[in-house]
Write a sequence for this structure.
């Protein structure tokens, strides 16, 4: 037997009892010391917590004292602690890429329960790590310059906050919003819980700041069409939809809106509760304040006649010939804050939304409460005049319901309590809250709940079966009857009310999947965007340089959205200040002497990173464009393409290790 | 019958760093139990899967091989999982020609959110291979040796 | 002529005779050729499933197996009775799960030399077949005597749309297929929010008090909204409301007198067929007064003027939902496909 050329240290982690409860870690360590000695293992230890400073020091000391040239740690997933151990090795003077972390927690102890089998599998995994490690090379991280500009997608409160933080720190920001104005859902609300601040009063100043900030390029009525490139250097293409209004000339005087003869039901901002014109700004405080033209409803685009807006515009800012424009620019990082859609309550037809006229959803009710809304803040029935005497508020509509969304939408309890207060305050009506559980875990939230209880709102614990207009008793005539099992008294109840408000849950945007694809990130099974780590890294994603903030990551209220917007901005600003970014050195390259110039690899590369040289009749990989997927390595018939970190030798050796006989 | 049901197959699973490996992590975090017969290899992308890897696994004693990757259209590297799909289909045909049942090679898509689905795929794969019985390619018939140095060289030693 | 395998079910030979007698000529008229499954047996209704599951499943499975074996050319099966329809779709869906139930059922069936592979047959209720496969346009073309002025309550019952295993209905809580069909016949369809509420099923036999209360609720609301006649799609619903209405009156001291007939009977009337060919007269609460209204001129009701303060209603979901909230008079007929609860 040849003398092994490497000196390898093997470390098995107990992870408290997370691993050691199922895997006999001492046995694995002992086995590695004996059976893998011929591969070069000179020391094998186990430790309670390898990731602790004591565990890391253990590795560092062994490197120094035993002259280790390779280190295998068997512990949790490399996605969690690979960096920890690589850094430890680096501190002890060993190239970090000569360290391998293999997972015996996520892949063994947490998913298997038979101790014998789990221990055997752990041995196989350790052996595969050792085999693979022998072929590791010392590598240096690649450095990429970071473009200081940032793209923020979505002009709701999370996007606004992120934009302002970055702009105030001196970095250029492009804020792209699909609607004519920024503001998002928050601009539709009247009051915010639990302080009952006026939503517009706290949002509008921020919107104005965005509009006038010298570092912000605000692109509303625009959508991102294409994103190419990678962290540090994204190439972005944005479609600026034709406003048919020349923004340089428009003063925002609003005469065109006044003169436009066409009324259109506003499905977006007014959620179908009020009308706007065919040329419009969604609301008076809109930023920017230039109107847009709704081509589907404009009389001129329909019949070829009208042009009232053009006739009356004092600055000749109307341009019917204006076309969509493609804007191209480069950014170093991207923050996605595209928000949520409201659950479509018509899907729960037993609640009668869309069929029974006095059933409203939460956004409709927000608009009704809003002083600039369709009723100027008056709470009335659908007829527009009658004040309700009894109002039922149903929680968890489309949330915590396996037939629709299993998750809790997190804001609806507080929102329903706020509604209860507003109804009580403005109409004096009896208010019934139908809830499954009341969830008020925020600062000052439970106090708000107690306040609403004291105000006299009725709380009925039970999931509402049905809202119906089919009366059984004389006092139910002309009412909406809420049929519910009151689980606290164990009885079926029928409660007649005049108005029902459905606290509909939050859902991912209907096009969230396509948007995720555009930016190369992934969605959870529910459709929310997946963060890099649910606890430790809630605003980064698996894709370097793409961050998420606000409801796009999951339902959350205004303070949490703002916190995430600021957090994402801080992460980006940190990268910008570094000026360059280090990247994993996982790249492919071609050995020119072995390349036959067959060009099979050329077409396989999705980044066009492989160039063919006519003169030498060989191909070459541009390391700056290569992302390290390794498809070309697998395809080269001559074995001329080689890759770092996942070379053929490494993978083949790893397979050998995994299939080693561990029963002896 | 009894002999077969006692048989514990060994499966090698190739995973993509961005989706199925994370799905395996997620299965762990959620403590979703699946048979210990599978041993995973992490690649950066299912497109990295050299067909040699699969043959190597069979040659070293695996009874089944699973290839996993991002769902079509969700590849981290845009479209490389389609290349894995091509190779998979070709490999199945090649394996049959080599006397290996095509069912011993299985392709499954699993996104980073699909821990439960991945665990189910693994469980089903183990049961399928259990029914097929041991392969013993490394013991029976020709000795197949796949070397480290030359990529696609397949030396068949009589 | 579209050809379908026909599974009548036991009721059609007894209490649901009017249904059977009316659907035959109606189906012929709209181009539905029904080929009765040879040697079919009882579906077990609702009771047997509660007693012994596997034999009950196998009883239903046998009908599916027979249908599959006899399905040369005609791949779909149609059941006019909601209980039969529910049982057939339920067992087909249970078997498709392949969790061992399919094997138990096929084991039992093998004793009779039969077997069934789930998913092989399309399973329809007669109503969904007429609305979606024949189409309301075809139905409208055949109408010679529109049911103008007849106020009908579309009562679909619970078993056809709930649970919707075969995904046939616009909404399992508030399906509108019967509304659309009756609208296509020219009837004035009342908004009937109890359309999928329970008729009592077999409660008249085992818990009459409960049954009377349920029947009372259905009929009372129908009277409340000035219904001339209720319309059923299931023999059990029709029988409970028709046959037990008198007992309900005696028990609760009410004076209900609400006729209920099958939708195929009204289709036949609209197609100009003779009453006695459609099973009229077999109902216990007489439909005479109600159907006398057809053909007579009813003055057109003035449309309610839109109140200038009124707030607009949300858009309807998909095709063909009531256009105007509660007044329930204006119906938009589905133009293509079916109204599914997708994202707006």
């Amino acid at each position: 037997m040849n003398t092994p050329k490497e000196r390898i240290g093997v470390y098995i982690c107990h992870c408290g009892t997370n691993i050691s409860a199922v895997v006999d870690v001492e046995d694995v360590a002992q086995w590695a010391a004996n059976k893998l000695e011929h591969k070069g293992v000179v020391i094998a230890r186990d430790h309670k917590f390898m990731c602790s400073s004591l565990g890391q020091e253990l590795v560092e000391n062994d490197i120094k004292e035993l002259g280790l040239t390779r280190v295998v740690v068997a512990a949790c997933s490399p996605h969690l602690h690979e960096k920890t151990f690589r850094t430890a090795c680096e501190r002890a003077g060993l190239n970090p890429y000569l360290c391998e972390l293999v997972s015996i927690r996520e892949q063994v102890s947490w998913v298997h329960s038979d101790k014998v089998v789990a221990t055997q599998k752990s041995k196989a995994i350790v052996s595969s790590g050792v085999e693979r490690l022998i072929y590791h090379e010392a590598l240096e991280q690649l450095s990429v310059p970071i473009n200081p500009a940032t793209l923020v997608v979505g002009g709701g409160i999370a996007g606004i906050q992120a934009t302002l933080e970055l702009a105030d720190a001196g970095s250029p920001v492009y804020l792209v919003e699909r609607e004519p104005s920024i503001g998002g859902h928050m601009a539709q609300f009247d009051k915010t819980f639990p302080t009952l601040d006026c939503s517009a009063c706290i949002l509008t100043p921020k919107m104005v700041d965005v509009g006038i900030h010298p570092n912000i390029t605000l692109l509303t009525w625009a959508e991102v069409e294409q994103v190419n490139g990678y962290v540090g250097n994204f190439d972005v293409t944005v479609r600026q939809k034709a406003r048919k209004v020349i923004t340089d000339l428009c003063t925002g005087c609003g005469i065109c809106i006044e003169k436009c003869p066409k009324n259109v039901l506003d499905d977006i901002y007014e959620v179908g509760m009020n009308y706007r014109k065919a040329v419009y700004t969604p609301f008076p405080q809109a930023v920017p304040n230039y109107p847009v033209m709704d081509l589907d409803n404009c009389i001129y685009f329909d019949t070829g006649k009208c042009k009232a807006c053009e006739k009356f515009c004092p600055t000749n800012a109307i341009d019917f010939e204006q076309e969509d424009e493609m804007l191209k620019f480069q950014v170093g990082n991207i923050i996605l804050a595209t928000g949520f859609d409201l659950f479509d309550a018509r899907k729960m037809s037993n609640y009668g939304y869309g069929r029974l006229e006095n059933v409203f959803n939460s956004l409709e009710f927000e608009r009704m409460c809003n002083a600039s809304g369709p009723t100027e803040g008056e709470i009335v029935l659908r007829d527009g005049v009658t004040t309700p005497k009894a109002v039922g508020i149903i929680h968890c509509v489309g949330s915590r319901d396996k037939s629709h969304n299993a998750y809790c939408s997190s804001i609806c309890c507080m929102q329903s309590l706020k509604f209860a207060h507003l109804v009580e305050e403005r109409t004096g009506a009896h208010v019934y809250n139908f809830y499954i559980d009341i969830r008020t875990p925020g600062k000052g939230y439970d106090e708000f709940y107690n306040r609403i209880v004291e105000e006299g709102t009725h709380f009925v614990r039970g999931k509402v079966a049905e809202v119906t207009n089919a009366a059984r008793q004389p006092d139910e005539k002309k009412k909406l009857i809420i049929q519910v099992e009151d689980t606290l008294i164990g009885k079926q109840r029928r409660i007649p009310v005049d108005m029902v408000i459905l606290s509909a849950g939050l859902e991912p945007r209907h096009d969230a999947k396509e948007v995720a694809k555009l930016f190369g990130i992934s969605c959870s099974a529910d459709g929310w965007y997946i963060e890099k780590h649910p606890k430790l890294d809630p605003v980064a994603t698996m894709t370097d340089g793409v961050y998420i903030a606000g409801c796009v990551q999951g339902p959350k209220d205004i303070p949490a959205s703002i916190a995430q917007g600021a957090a994402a901005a801080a992460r980006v600003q940190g990268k910008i200040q570094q000026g360059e970014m280090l990247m994993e050195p996982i790249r492919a390259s071609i050995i020119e002497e072995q390349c036959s110039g067959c060009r099979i690899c050329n077409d396989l590369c999705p980044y066009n990173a492989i160039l063919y040289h006519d003169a030498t009749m060989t191909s070459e990989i541009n390391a700056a464009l290569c992302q390290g997927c390794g498809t070309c390595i697998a395809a080269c018939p001559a074995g001329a393409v080689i890759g770092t970190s996942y070379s053929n030798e490494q993978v083949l050796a790893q397979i050998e290790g995994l299939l080693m006989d561990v029963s002896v | 019958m009894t002999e077969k049901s006692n048989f514990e197959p060994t499966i090698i699973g190739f995973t993509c760093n961005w989706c199925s490996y994370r799905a395996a992590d997620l299965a762990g975090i959620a403590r979703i139990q699946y048979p210990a017969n599978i041993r995973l290899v992490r690649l950066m992308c299912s497109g990295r899967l050299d067909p040699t890897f699969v043959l190597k696994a069979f040659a070293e004693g695996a009874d089944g091989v699973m290839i996993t990757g991002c769902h079509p259209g969700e590849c981290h590297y845009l479209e490389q999982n389609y290349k894995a799909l091509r190779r998979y289909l070709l490999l199945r045909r090649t394996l049959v020609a080599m006397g290996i049942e095509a069912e011993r090679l299985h392709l499954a898509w699993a996104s980073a959110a699909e821990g439960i689905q991945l665990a189910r795929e693994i469980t089903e794969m183990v049961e399928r291979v259990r029914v097929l019985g041991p392969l013993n390619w490394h013991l029976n018939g020709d000795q197949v040796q796949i070397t480290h140095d030359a990529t696609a060289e397949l030396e068949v030693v009589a | 002529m579209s050809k379908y395998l026909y599974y009548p079910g036991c009721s059609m030979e007894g209490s649901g005779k009017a249904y059977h007698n009316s659907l035959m000529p109606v189906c012929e008229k709209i181009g539905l050729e029904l080929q009765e499954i040879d040697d079919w047996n009882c579906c077990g209704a609702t009771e047997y499933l509660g007693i012994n599951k596997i034999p009950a499943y196998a009883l239903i499975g046998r009908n599916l197996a027979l249908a599959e074996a006899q399905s040369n050319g005609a791949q779909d099966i149609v059941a006019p009775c909601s209980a039969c329809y529910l049982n057939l779709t339920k067992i087909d869906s249970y078997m498709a799960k392949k969790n061992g139930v399919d094997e138990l059922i096929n084991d039992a069936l093998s004793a009779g030399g039969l077997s069934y592979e789930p998913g092989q047959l399309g399973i329809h209720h007669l109503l969904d077949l007429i609305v979606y496969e024949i189409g309301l346009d075809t139905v409208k073309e055949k109408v010679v005597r529109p049911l103008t002025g007849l106020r009908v309550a579309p009562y679909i019952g619970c078993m056809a749309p709930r649970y919707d295993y075969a995904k046939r209905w616009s909404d399992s809580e508030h399906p509108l297929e019967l509304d659309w069909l009756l609208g296509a016949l020219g009837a004035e369809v009342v908004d009937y929010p109890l359309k999928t509420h329970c008729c009592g099923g077999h409660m008249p036999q085992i818990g009459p008090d409960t049954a009377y209360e349920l029947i009372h609720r259905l009929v009372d609301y129908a009277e409340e909204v000035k219904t001339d006649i209720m319309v059923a799609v299931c023999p059990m619903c029709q029988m409970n409301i028709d046959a037990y209405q008198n007992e309900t009156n005696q028990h609760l001291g009410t004076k209900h007198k609400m006729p209920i007939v099958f939708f195929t009977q009204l289709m036949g009337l609209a197609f100009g067929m003779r009453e006695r060919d459609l099973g009229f007269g077999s109902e216990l609460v007489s439909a005479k007064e109600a159907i006398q209204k057809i053909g007579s001129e009813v003055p057109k009701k003035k449309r309610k003027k839109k109140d200038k303060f009124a707030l607009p209603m949300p858009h309807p979901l998909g095709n063909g939902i009531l256009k105007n909230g509660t007044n329930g008079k204006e119906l938009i007929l589905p133009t293509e496909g079916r109204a599914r609860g997708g994202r707006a």
User: Anything to note?
Assistant: Chain A has a mean pLDDT of 94.
